[in-house]
Specification:
The complex is a heterodimer of chains A (about 400) and B (about 170). In chain A, about 45% of the residues lie in helices and about 25% in strands. Chain A is α/β, with parallel strands linked by helices and about 400 residues long. Chain A is globular. The two termini of chain B are about 20 Å apart. Chain B has one domain: Histidine kinase-like ATPase, C-terminal domain (Heat Shock Protein 90), CATH 3.30.565. Chain B is an alpha+beta fold. In chain B, strands 1-2-3-5-4 form a 5-stranded antiparallel β-sheet. The chains are: A alpha/beta (about 400), B alpha+beta (about 170). At the A-B interface, helix 1, helix 2, helix 3 and helix 7 of A face helix 2, helix 3, helix 5 and helix 6 of B.
Chain lengths: ~400, ~170
Amino acid sequence: MKHIGKTYTLTYDPLDQQVEFTGVCRLSEAAEARQIFRYLAQIHDAAQGALQLNFRRLRYMNARGIKALAHFITWARRQNRRQIKLVAAHVVPWSVRELSVLTRLWSDVEIIIYDQNFYKSQNLIEDAAFIPLLRNQTRILWPLEKKILRQHGLEKGMKTADICCGCGDVPLLISRELGAGQVIGIDHSEAAIAYARNLRRQFHVQNASFQRGDATALMLEDDQFDFVLCRLSLQIFSRPEQILQELIRIAKPGGRVYAVCEDYDLVLGHPESDAIRHTYRLAAEYGDQMGMDLRSGKKLYGMLAEARLEDIRTDYLMVDTGNADREAFARVIESWQTFSVETIGGELGLNGAERDTLQAGYEAQLRAIRSPYGYTTWGLTACSGRKPV
Amino acid sequence: MATFTLDLSFPAEDFQREWQRCSLAANYAAAYAAYQFDRREQVENLISTVANEALETAVRLAPPDADLQFCLSQVEGGLRLNSTHPVRAGAAGPYLNLLGRLADDGRLEEMYLELLTSDWDTDDYFNQLGLTMIVHDFGARLAARPGSQPDRIHTEIFIPVEETAV
């Protein structure tokens, strides 16, 4: 059941009892506001219990639009049969500011800011301090991944989107080294997007752009991109399938969706193999407590298959002391060590002994990297599938 | 930080005939201005929202054959949007009166809630609701004075970008 205006659409999903607003809702006449009111009242009568109005994909709403909502809420208060939930998001700033006033009209109106406490490790991963870690990872991963990306169908001239692009270095490399036609990078972190824009200027890349956005409600049209990436990110969300649905939505029919996830079970080393394995088992468990799944690489194939993608291709991305610059590899491990022991350890309140145990494996891995006879790996899974035509 | 001034001029009739052009013009000005700030998306959304209500106000206040002049410029702490245009007969007094009441922020919330729940057509005259919203929700500061020529009005809106976009 839909209400379609000139520049906006309201769609009711009875399964979630949710009305989703999309587009730009800047109304010119009272008659338009009345139509919205009538549509919402009709939905209100058909629903049971709580009714959710979702604004995460509505770019703008003017005062007349807010008035339509105010009239609806005043009317719903008189009916007193439903609780009303308004879903706002920081990525659509008007929603956080303009919707708040509606709670003054009725105490049964609740505002949910969807991307506040978006995922458990949000404040850590979206901080500017996380960016050096991302840059170091790219240094050792990119030489392997650019070959894998070609094998998975990323070709010259393709319109490409990198969702959860972090500091933007990979989309820029895709543009420069793989010749993508147009690249857009989207991330929820303001710090990362600001960094990406500076990097784009430094690299003089003309065909790349960056936007702040919510990976579970992208402000991008359906069926637009030849190739959609999501690297090292599905693992940090509690409901990765929501993001995957969005990746598939924006891919063209016949286009490919490509994801990379960590798999700490693939981190090995020698000598001191046991110490290294023990630390990565612990780090994965602590990751679980932070809402991350650091062993999710092996689940990717199943996720893409369940999402009904076709022609699924899977590859290991195995960084090791044989194919990576050892000093760059060591910097990555040092970054992980600090992040895991200090940042995650601090968040989880680990005591001194627990931190020492965690630290020991990273130290052992660093010794393996710096010894000419040592060997160690960082293993990930890359998986892609084709959107059915 | 670089500073800029963006001068725009439109025939009111253009907007009155096709209302969505208010939105197009507001988005254009916002996209340009937001490049000057770090939190670009947030600032763009804020500027566009405020500029759109300002444009809608001017379009409702002006007679159809009027020219609307806008100037958006960067100032300490934010942006200033100036508009100059003729006003329909009898509109200037109530408009200046409203701006006076908006400056008295002791009653701002009460006024806003009254307008939100008033009859559908109450704010048609010159977008009282939109102006009240940008003051209430976005901390915009408004001032207006009669222009140098009769039946013209000059409005100045300060948008506190630095304190609002957090």
